[in-house]
Amino acid sequence: MISTKEFQFCLPGLNLSLEIVANTEDLITDPEDDDQIPYWAELWPAARGLAQYIWESVDFRGATVLELGAGLGLPGLVAVLKGGKVTLTDYQPEALKFAARSASRNNIQGVDFVLADWRDFPIITRFDWIIGSDVLYNPKRVPFVAQIIERNLAPQGQLLFAHPGRKVAYDFLRELARLKRMKEKQDIIPVATDHPHFPFYEIDIHHLIC
Predict the structure, then answer these.
(1) Which of 141, 137, 198 lies closest to 162, judged by CA?
(2) What is the pTM of this model?
(3) 69 close to 37: Cβ distance less than 8 angstroms
(4) 179-208 as b/e, with b when 16 or more CB fall inside 10 Å?
(5) Which domains does the chain have, with CATH numbers?
(6) How many CA atoms lie within 13 A of 83 on its CB side?
(7) Where do the H-state alpha helices sit in 58-195?
(8) Backbone angles phi, psi at 184, to 5 degrees
């Protein structure tokens, strides 16, 4: 049984009640196995920054949206509220269960939840948007993200990625924009947290347009 707590995500005109894991460390069974580390259970600053950017700056009305590595699902749920037809994906079943419960408690409907490993991605549909928060952190996993973008982004699609200043993310997105001749908009979203040692982050937002 996973111990949970409520988290209130609040912005002007938006108040979401999320069910999140009370203590992520309780879920760690093998710290040497990257697949078993419960990254999904943390509400990362990049997810908060991307959710804020979406709420303030993006109109998804009528658009299909694929969220990679959704975890607790905050950006994807906000994308629904901005009019998107959203598919949340994660390779951990518990992540999708938590995201679904948060959707239910906020009366957010019409979201698809798909269990999906990037290494054997089951979705073949193309989407108007592909989004992700801090999913470009491991150089070994980046090629799988590139494959998904190649197969699942619509011809005139858009990408939206957020990260806390990771070089691997910068390098990948810069090269992707060059190869695909995509226009790129960048922004920085400040995010405050209750972490005693890391109370403030600057989250980099990359918006790439075909």
Answers:
(1) 137
(2) 0.96
(3) no
(4) eeebeeeeeebebeeeeeeeeebebbbbbb
(5) 43-209 (3.40.50.150)
(6) 8
(7) 74-81, 93-105, 142-152, 167-180
(8) -125, 130
In tens digits, what is the pLDDT along the chain, a chain of 210 residues? 789 999 999 999 999 999 999 888 777 776 777 777 888 999 999 999 999 999 999 999 999 999 999 999 999 999 999 999 999 999 999 999 999 999 999 999 999 999 999 999 999 999 999 999 999 999 999 999 999 999 999 999 999 999 999 999 999 999 999 999 999 999 999 999 888 888 999 999 999 999
Nearest to residue 191, comparing CAs of 43, 70, 25? 43
The DSSP call for residue 74 is: H
How far apart, in whole angstroms, are the C-alpha atoms of residue 71 and residue 91? 9
Residue among 83, 17, 76, 11 nearest 47 (CA): 76
Residue with tokens 């299909």: 64
| Distance from C-alpha of 130 to C-alpha of 148, rounded to nearest angstrom | 9
Q: What is the rounded CA–CA span in Å between residue 102 and residue 183?
A: 34
